[in-house]
């Protein structure tokens, strides 16, 4: 009778290790990710700037030194951004205090992202 208990303990231990190993395997393997929907938003033309206009806006802001401006220029040239792109109104505005919570909410409301939630 004692041999039967020993064999039963061995079977349960083996089964436990097997289930644990199987669980680790399924949890660690890469999962497939599927693209269900794709949407692209095009802002109004008053937010469109060229690369040079963007660099000039950054220069006028006074927040960047010449090294930072050169870095931004290199990034713009090596990225896939076209000759013209869109930037937020707070970046285009010349006043210092334009990036307010009110303007942030207005910017958020321009894009119809809420439709996709």
Describe the structure.
This protein is 56% helix and 5% strand. It is mainly alpha-helical and 117 residues long. The protein has a domain at 45-116. It has a two-stranded antiparallel sheet. Helix 2 runs antiparallel to helix 3 (66-78). The longest helix is centred in the first third of the chain and has 27 residues, at 2-28. The mean pLDDT is 82.
Strand content: 5-15%
**Euclidean distance between termini CA atoms:** 63 Å
Number of separate helices: 5
Structural class: mainly alpha
Percentage of residues in helical conformation? 55-70%
Main sheet: which strands, in order across? 1-2
Uncertain runs are none
Name the shape in a single word.
elongated
Quantity of strands, as a count = 2
The profile of the biggest β sheet is:
2 strands, antiparallel
Succession of helices and strands:
HEHHEHH
**Rg over C-alpha atoms, rounded to the nearest angstrom:** 29 Å
Tell me, rounded to a whole number, the average pLDDT. Answer: 82
Question: In a nutshell, what does this entry contain?
Answer:
The protein is mainly α and 117 residues long. It has a domain at 45-116.
In terms of topology, how is this protein built?
Elements: H1 2-28, E1 48-50, H2 51-61, H3 66-78, E2 84-86, H4 89-92, H5 101-110
Antiparallel strand pairs: 1-2
Helix pairs in contact: 2-3
Features:
mainly alpha; two-stranded antiparallel sheet; 56% helix
